[in-house]
Amino acid sequence: MTSFDAHCHCGQTEWTAKLEPEQQGHILCHCDTCKYLSGSTFTLNQIIPTSSLNITKGASKLGKYTYYGESGKGVHCYFCPNCTSHVYHQQEVMGPDKIVLRTGLLTEGIKNFKPAAEIFGKAKLPWEKEVAQTFDTMPPS
Ligand SMILES: [Zn+2]
Ligand SMILES: [Zn+2]
């Protein structure tokens, strides 16, 4: 298990995430919500235990945005209230022990992690090339 540092764009929020070797890769999410929240075509993520994330600066000030996914359950997005960088998302459907971490904000992650899978491939833009195994929505569990 390795600890990875991260910070938001403005520096008001800092965090570390402990990742197992198999978690040291990006899950590309092509869903329409990710397009809105990022202003881009996909986001970079990894599902990790809640206890593996340690917000070392700005934790008490994080902003929270909640939307409701296809399941009808809430997805809570935590972000730096100053610069809006998203630190992590907590999906009610996954329970309190798991979160979705933005691997693209890990200082080493954005440089060195490889694509591990692509999800919500059904919403992928037609000009994007496949870079990893692609699932229509989520991988079968
Ligand atoms: Zn910030
Ligand atoms: Zn998404």
Automatic annotation (TrEMBL):
Keyword Cytoplasm: no
Sequence ranges assigned to domain CENP-V/GFA in this UniProt record: 4-128
InterPro entries the record matches: CENP-V/GFA, Mss4-like_sf
Keywords, alphabetical: Lyase, Metal-binding, Zinc
GO molecular function, a single term: metal ion binding
Keyword Transferase applies: no
PANTHER family referenced in this protein's UniProt entry, alphabetically: DUF636 DOMAIN PROTEIN (AFU_ORTHOLOGUE AFUA_1G03180), GFA DOMAIN-CONTAINING PROTEIN
Similarity comment: Belongs to the Gfa family.
Name of this protein: CENP-V/GFA domain-containing protein
